[in-house]
Amino acid sequence: MSLKTAPRKYLWVWFLWLGLFYAAWLLLMQIDGNWQAAKEHWPMALAMALGSYAAGSTPMGGGTVGFPVLVLLFDMPATLGRDFSFAVQSIGMVSAAIFILCRRQPLAWSMLKGSVVGALIGTPIGILFFAPLIPELWIKVTFAVLWGSFGVLHLYRIGEISGHIGMTEFDEHWDHRVGFILGLAASVLAVSVTGVGIDMVLYAALVLLCRADLKIAIPTSVVIMGLTSFYGVIIKSVTHSWQPGVYENWLAAAPIVALGAPLGVFIVERIGRKPILLVVAALCVGQFIWTCFAEQEALGLLGIALAMGALLLCLWVFELLRLWGNRLVSAAQQKHAAKMQAGAPGSVRSNNAHGPASNPLGSD
């Protein structure tokens, strides 16, 4: 009997990326005025020290902290918060994604591949055609609702979500189709408007539908958000649609998040994800309440009622996913038991660290 060994890691690739990034950042800082601009925006660097850690250790992009800091705390336009989310995550989340891939952490590859294809189609459609239709106020409310519902879900389902082991795979093509639909919808309706969201949507599908372990679901969400953010940066650069102020805030925050997000990936494996998720969930609920309070005059009673209704609608969708997941897992287990009784190997697997989901540099 052969002993299984840990997959080979390629951390030198991540260190190479860091070297190239910091060299490029230092070159940019030599341009007249950039050092001063970075110094003037030091509060964003401080905020993203926490934000980037949360980005690597939870299914939340760094923009999930950057957006409310700019929009709620500094009273900047919501469009600036959205564009900054793209910019800062294209460094922090990409750095964390490279770190995850180099360490060969387990990922839900079939659903991830489908969501990447969906994001490739949906992100430009959303940025160019859908996002311009959304008023500033409702960009704030959309962000608050998405992450407020995420927070409430975890406050009352954290025990169940954190208790999953491995991951139930139903069918590779089914996973791919579900990932594609979620990636397409989330990139058009959420990412293009707020700069974040596809990570939360894919994460919710993995933990509620597939009963995925947090050690699989969170790294998968980090990778999809990193790729989508980088793609969004390309689209906004080609279309010259950046909001004023994004670059200066990026100069201050980029060197922090390049290390902060991977640090979150590394540390969370040693202290556990449940405490961090609970803290982040409370913050998500807090920012929803803050948004409704700060914008109560603009929203009015009807607007606040709509925001509350939208949050409840999101929770209802989460519960539908969970119930659907219960039926799928039950049917899969019955099918597997029937095949085992017939002497045939089951086609539905519960992955662990040695299963198919543990090969992030290979194919399914």
Topology:
Blueprint (H helix, E strand, L loop, with lengths): L10 H19 L4 H7 L1 H16 L5 H11 L4 H25 L6 H22 L5 H27 L5 E2 L2 H23 L3 H11 L5 H25 L7 H26 L2 H21 L1 H46 L7 E2 L14
Antiparallel strand pairs: 1-2
Helix pairs in contact: 1-5, 1-11, 2-11, 3-4, 3-11, 4-5, 5-10, 5-11, 6-8, 6-10, 7-12, 7-13, 8-9, 9-10, 9-13, 12-13
Outline of the structure:
The chain is mainly α. It is 77% helix and 1% strand.
Keywords, please?
13 helices; 2 strands; mainly alpha; 364 residues; two-stranded antiparallel sheet; disordered C terminus
Shape: globular
Mean pLDDT: 86
Secondary structure class reads: mainly alpha
Major β-sheet strand ordering: 1-2
What are the secondary-structure elements, in order, as H or E?
HHHHHHHEHHHHHHE
Largest sheet: 2 strands, antiparallel
What is the end-to-end distance?
Answer: 24 Å
The amount of helix comes to over 70%
Number of helices: 13
Overview of the molecule:
The protein is mostly helical. The protein has one domain. The chain has 13 helices and two strands, in the order αααααααβααααααβ. The protein has helices at residues 11-29, 34-40, 42-57, 63-73, 78-102, 109-130, 136-162, 172-194, 198-208, 214-238, 246-271, 274-294, 296-341; strands at residues 168-169, 349-350. It has a two-stranded antiparallel ribbon. The two termini are 24 Å apart.
